[in-house]
Design goal:
Helix content is 24%, strand content 35%. By secondary structure, it is an alpha+beta fold. The two termini are 34 Å apart. Keywords: ATP-binding, Hydrolase, Nucleotide-binding, Transport.
């Protein structure tokens, strides 16, 4: 059973098309992440689902009910915003109970829901404090708790961690994932952070220009991107791209010749035509192991970027900037030459004109 279904959704401001004929089905209990750069339409889509924006065309269904023109309070959703949006004059408990008291819910039921939310989010010691006495992470927990006490089936998150520092973001990612596993509610989460998307999502919808470029599991999107945009967006550092041609089952660029595995690529569609070979920095083999790869060569290191767990190496391959991820303990330095190898089975191939995966 689908929890949220979107059919032919359009949203237009004057002559600007923000969402274009968007279709999406989200099964009950799924954690879906809307991922994309600023201006791609991900927050706009979330606001349409929440009822904060009226679409130009199309329909939105929540648990089988058409809510396209329903008020936000009638949709059975809980929303967590990028800003904490807490009432500063109220205590944590007051913020959690405000909406329930306005709905004239019995006190006993309110107390029960607040107790449960506080236990799940580990904010019991904070209930009597005011927001000014809380850290950023604690405030965001309270904001999540305010949505949680409503006991709804669909939760909407609009970049809830973007205002936090890196460590707090990592900690709260774990809390949100644990929360989803406990509640098994449908969650739709907007972010521009691919790490959040990869770690949290059951499925990721990568958006660009008001359209969904690819919808799939994190593993599918990482390993088999449908087009160059998705391949470039997912991964840090991003995928290496080399422009060349395909001839007789081999990718060629200057002295570079990479045999293509016929079970991995539809080379017939790109026979003797321009193509782009994509290979992730972490999939490049270095040292003695490189000699056993379908293609190996020597490159000169231009820049070394140690990050602790990894070492990022920058070089040139056939006149193209090329990044290599090595072990954090790798002993390399600029102007040193290293041997690298590329395995076509771990690469992606794109048509240079359409940018679609071959």
């Amino acid at each position: 059973m689908s929890s949220v279904e979107i059919k032919g959704l359009d949203l237009q401001f004057a002559s600007i098309k923000v969402l274009q004929n968007l279709n999406l089905t989200i099964p009950k209990g799924e954690f879906l992440v809307l991922l994309g750069s600023s201006g791609c339409g991900k927050s706009t889509l979330l606001n349409c689902i929440a009822g904060l924006l009226e679409p130009t065309a199309g329909q939105i269904f929540i648990n089988g009910k058409n809510v396209t023109w329903s008020e936000p309070s009638e949709r059975g959703i809980g929303m967590v915003f990028q800003s904490y949006a807490l009432y500063p004059q109220m205590s944590v408990e007051g913020n959690l109970t405000f909406g329930l008291r306005n709905a004239r819910m019995p006190r006993q039921e309110i107390a029960k829901r607040v107790k449960r939310a506080a236990e799940v989010l580990q904010i019991e010691p904070l209930l009597k404090r005011k927001p000014a006495a809380l850290s950023g992470g604690q405030r965001q927990r309270v904001a999540i708790g305010r949505a949680l006490v409503r006991d709804v089936e669909v939760f909407l998150f609009d970049e809830p961690l973007s205002n936090l520092d890196a460590k707090l973001r990592a900690d709260l990612r774990v809390e949100i994932k644990r929360l989803h596993q406990q509640l098994e509610n449908t969650m739709i989460y907007v972010t521009h952070d691919q790490i959040e998307a990869m770690t949290l999502a059951d499925r990721i919808a990568i958006m660009k220009g008001g359209k969904i470029m690819q919808l799939g599991s994190p593993n599918e999107i990482y390993n088999r991107p449908l087009n160059r945009y998705v391949a470039d967006f997912i991964g840090s550092p991003s995928m290496n791209f080399i422009e060349g041609t395909i001839k007789e089952g081999t990718f060629k660029k200057g002295d570079m010749m990479v045999p293509l595995n016929k079970y991995e690529f539809s080379t017939e569609r790109a026979s003797q035509s321009a193509a782009t070979l994509g290979i992730r920095p972490e999939h490049i083999v270095t040292g003695d192991q490189a000699h056993g790869m379908p293609f190996s060569t020597s490159v000169e290191i231009e820049l070394v970027e140690p990050t602790g767990s990894d070492t990022l190496v920058y070089a040139q391959l056939e006149g193209t900037a090329f990044r290599i991820r090595m072990d954090g303990q790798a002993k390399v330095r600029p102007r040193e030459k290293i041997t690298i190898g590329i395995d076509s089975a771990r690469a992606s191939l794109f048509d240079s004109s359409t940018e679609l995966r071959l």
